[in-house]
Design goal:
317 residues; alpha/beta; Rossmann fold; 5-stranded parallel β-sheet; 11 helices; 5 strands; 56% helix
């Protein structure tokens, strides 16, 4: 007996089909298993089954056409306009007639976009007109937010708070992305609890790794920097391999502390843009018996008045 017969039952004789009545859902599945029936009747039966579920909108594709058309012509307009700016900036050979071609293309596609928006506004074009400004405003906010955070983290000079700490059996690994104020705070804390501290950077761009090494050596930071290159965007796997290798070299009674910076924001909605990887690092490190995860809070947006009132002590954040 075939598995197909067990699941769907034995095939019916032609003379017995008149006495059998299947629901639409069961009938659709039975016909879909037969090549001839599915070709002959599946299209009609699929529509009969889907119509009660998603309504008669399944038969209407026309409302989607204005959305697609506007998106396409907006893309064309932006591409042509971008080429105009490119020719104005570079002024390569033959740029004068090329800029006229792209300028004419940008003008024509822009006119077409305006005509479609005017004629199809009620039929669905209004959704594009509303959604595009909202998305642009959100992306501008995200860019300004990260620009502001970058300025808050900017570190021009390296001035450590602490010297060498007292001898201890713990080893500290400080995860870092770039040389900034949050790294300075992490290194200061690491040196206060251990005399064996290592800064770890996982990178998939050799050029950035070389520049980071140059900055590190230029600042003469008295802590070794280890860079792990990976060809992938995922940094969890190379990080886990590095921790396993370090843990295997531990002696009896030794352990490793991994310091992870967590950004503390003033607004709850800013948390969406920060510290999403902290949870995954904690979960990953929980598999190691002799490794602990230390979360270092960093308030990237402190109150300026409070800093002025606290004076130099406020730098510790």
């Amino acid at each position: 007996m075939k598995i197909k017969d067990v699941i769907l039952g034995k095939p019916l004789k032609t003379s017995d089909i008149a006495n059998e009545k299947l629901s639409k859902a069961w009938g659709l599945s039975v016909m879909a298993s037969d090549a001839v029936s599915s070709v002959a009747y599946a299209g009609e039966e699929i529509l009969l089954v889907l119509t009660p579920v998603i309504g008669f909108g399944a038969f209407k594709v026309a409302p989607l056409v204005p959305l697609y058309t506007i998106g396409v012509f907006i893309s064309f307009t932006l591409c042509q306009y971008g080429m105009v700016r490119f020719w104005l900036r570079t002024k390569e050979k033959g740029w004068k007639y090329k800029i006229w071609i792209n300028g004419l293309g940008a003008f024509m596609t822009f006119v077409d976009t305006c005509v479609i928006i005017y004629n199809k506004f009620i039929e669905g074009a209004w959704m594009i007109i509303v959604s595009i400004p909202i998305l642009m405003a959100f992306m501008i906010y995200v860019k300004r937010h990260y620009t502001y955070v970058g300025k808050q983290l900017e570190l021009k000079d390296f001035h450590p708070y602490h010297g060498d700490a007292a001898a201890g059996s713990s080893q500290c690994i400080v995860l870092m992305q770039s040389i900034n104020k949050s790294l300075l705070k992490s290194l200061n804390y690491a040196k206060s609890i251990s005399n064996s501290t290592t800064a770890l950077h996982i990178c998939r761009h050799p050029e950035y790794a070389a520049e980071l090494r140059r900055q590190w050596d230029g600042l003469q930071i008295p802590i070794p920097l280890e860079i792990v290159l990976t060809p992938y965007r995922d940094i969890m796997k190379p990080f886990d391999d590095y921790i396993w290798a370090r843990e295997a070299k531990l002696k009896h009674g030794e352990f490793i502390s991994v310091i992870i910076v967590k950004f503390v924001t003033d607004h709850w909605y800013d948390n969406i843009l920060h510290s999403q990887t902290t949870y995954f690092f904690e979960k990953l490190l929980s598999k190691h018996r002799n490794v602990t995860a230390t979360i270092m809070p960093f308030h990237y947006n402190p109150d300026d008045a409070k800093l002025e009132a606290d004076g130099p002590s406020g730098e510790a954040q």
